[in-house]
Amino acid sequence: MAAGVEGPRGFLALLVLGVLAAGGEGTTGFIKSPLSQKRLTQDSVELYCEAIGNPIPEIQWWFEGNEPNETYAQLWDGARQDRVKINATYNLHSTSTIYIANLTGDDSGTYECRASSDPDRNHLSKSPKVKWIRSQANVFVIERPEIQTGFSESAGKLVLSCNLSDPYSAIEGREWKHGDKILQTDMESSTFTSYTIEGKKEEHSGIYECIYKTSPEIKGEINISVLPQVVAYKKSEHGNEGDTGVLICKNPSFPPVSTWVWYRNGQESIVNGSGRYIIKSSSNKTELRILKLNIEEDTGDYHCSATNSLGIGQATVNLRVRSRLAALWPFLGIVAEVLVLVTIIFIYEKRRKPDEVLDDDDGGSAPLKSNATNHKDKNVRQRNAN
């Protein structure tokens, strides 16, 4: 936790600090004390302590076991074969956390958080003026009950099962989880529970948990392990000559991949950093980058191969490299169509023009002939009148 204080606890810390300051140098008080807890063997436990004083107090952790003649002994970071981790911060006030991993029955007992602001608190010859203040919490480590787990596959279904033997407290419900996702929950108290999955195990590999609602909770694990189910992000990739090509493969199955290998047909595996190749891989994904694509050298099939504890799986990606002029072909095609269309229109107009000229000449001579006839008829009528 951060050394600073915020919100209501920050106000409380300042209030306590004011009261302690009024009490003089060496006065110390707890803001937060460790809480007693129940845990199972192989679990872990974390205790938290927060103190304030003037000057800022030192915090220590001490332990007393359940044996009759056992006395308190100080705990250090790295104690108990490095299962004990202690973290402390000193800024405005003191905070300390003790974390104990892989608990055993010997870890049961009383854990004591001690705090003191006395400058002589650790002096070898002087007695401290102010005694260490103490806050205790009990940790009860209970032997983990045995859970029989298993799964079966038939008729396109997976059936997962757990059976708890000798529960140490009443069961108030059961739950099934896959990662952080809750799959099924109920309020029954039976020691046997099962969960059915539609589909093949290759499609549903992973770590599944059956959880019994006791105090503390009891968990069982079922691992559904399969060969790597490698899939290509894209089965066919396209790239322009001179650009960087990116090929990606993924493995969504369990257990995770330990080794990824890229290679081409009839060729040795591709080494990361060799030539124009860069490979980046993790437990569930690999990426091959090909710099400055060459249309003649890089076109073809690439294979990604994955290895886990059960065996090998692979997928294929086809890479097509296009010429840089490839992007111009659609535009050039449109330009060609327009030129052909303009040419057809031009030829059509050329052939049509002479016919139109002839038609215009015929139309101009007809009125002249008609006028001459009218004058002739007029002269005949005048003669007859005379």
Characterization of the model:
The longest helix has 57 residues, at 329-385. This protein has three helices and 24 strands. With 386 residues, the protein is α+β, with helices and mostly antiparallel strands. Mean pLDDT is 85; it is low at 1-6 and 19-23. The chain has helices spanning 7-23, 79-82, 329-385, and strands spanning 27-32, 37-40, 45-54, 58-65, 73-75, 84-91, 93-100, 109-116, 133-142, 147-154, 157-164, 174-178, 181-186, 192-198, 206-212, 218-224, 231-232, 236-240, 245-250, 259-264, 277-281, 285-290, 300-308, 311-322. The chain starts with 6 loop residues before the first helix and ends with a helix. A hairpin with a 3-residue loop joins β21 and β22. A five-stranded mixed beta sheet has the order 2-9-8-4-5, with no helix packed on it. The protein has a four-stranded antiparallel beta sheet with strand order 1-3-7-6.
